[in-house]
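FAQ: What does a ligand-bound record look like?

Like this one, built around glutamic acid:
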Amino acid sequence: MAVKYDPYENVVSVMEKAMEVGSIKKDMFEIIKNPQRETKVYLPVEMDDGTVRVFEGYRVQHSNIRGPFKGGIRYHQDCDLNEVKALATWMSLKCSVVNIPYGGAKGGVKVDPHTLSQRELCRLTRRYTYAIEPIIGADSDIPAPDINTNAQTMAWVLDTYSMLKGKPCPGVVTGKPVELGGSKGRASATGRGVVISTKLILNEYGIELKGRKIAIQGMGNVGGNAARIFYHREAVIVALSDISGGIYCKNGLNADSISEYIEGGGLLKDYDAPDVLHISNQEILTCECDVLVPAALENQINEDIAENLKCKFIVEGANGPTTEKGDEVLEKKGISLIPDIFANSGGVIVSYFEWVQNIQTLTWEKSQVNEMLENIMTKAFMEMKAEKNKSGCSFRMAAYIIALRRLIHAEEIKGIFP
Ligand code: GLU
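The answer part, i.e. the structure of the complex:
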């Protein structure tokens, strides 16, 4: 029987390996390994038909050694405390590898939001915010969007929190609407970061982005925005998928019109255009392409799928899409992978810019935000590359080594309380 994939076990095991490869002193590792706080809440919500349902919610605060806890809120039917624990750990590593002054956290509610009305979602979000209100705040823990949550969800979190405090508290969440203090460029930032990562790795091989064949799994905020930006930079999007299925066109798909179709409520299984073929989720991953962007959920590229991949590069838009065993196969096959904690860091980097603007009551132009994002990612990429060359390891190992070194160094100079 196949062993059940455990994302937290996976991240801990990769961290342990990085400690070895990077010869990092292990004294403080137990602290970094375990989250600082795990919160579980039960959320009674009145449905539109008058019945009451109780949902389970979580907030895991992994580390605040390098700055306030930071990380998104996910709504998904398969969400559980263990997954949120892994996601919170990845946030600490992510903020550390790109060197922004945040720790890591993650929140989640076990719910399929597609089965709820907008008003039910609003009540659920407000009740969840109320439940975690004592542990969040602009200087303590700052939520943001993640899978199935968006700027509207953040507007509800912001309003509920501000009502409870009796004053506007724009810095308590990021990824909120621009009209409520959100940052220009935040909505597309994770997708933009995926494209920047792709450009950086292709550049290492002297390859241009223009004309490269890209396959993207997932058309949510990350995949959808990455697709559009790739398309505008004249890359050829050969395959795309959403929860309903995938589409393929060897001459390239029009990401603009497909995004519009999805925004209008369309599902890719029903999408129709000349030369477009319908393919399965597995075929998205294994199709012929230069760059594969998994931008959906964890545990997509395991050892079996990895054996069948035909891409040359993988840029991880999702958190945790590749298993540890999958990684081993990719290395053996010589597929170059840019790891999630770097590749999808664009979101939290621009969240940081949003928070800085809120605290200083400033507003920045989109061009300024995009330029600063590219600068931070390019610098972090160079550091990752230098570590990769020094330790003779993969980009994932290099990213983990840098992130862990910073976290452990911070722990050492801070010391243990009391
Ligand atoms: N949910 C995003 C992530 O996984 C963004 C987090 C944030 O902006 O705080 O990185």
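Follow-up question: can I read anything off the structure? Yes, for example: The first strand starts at residue 37 and ends at 46.
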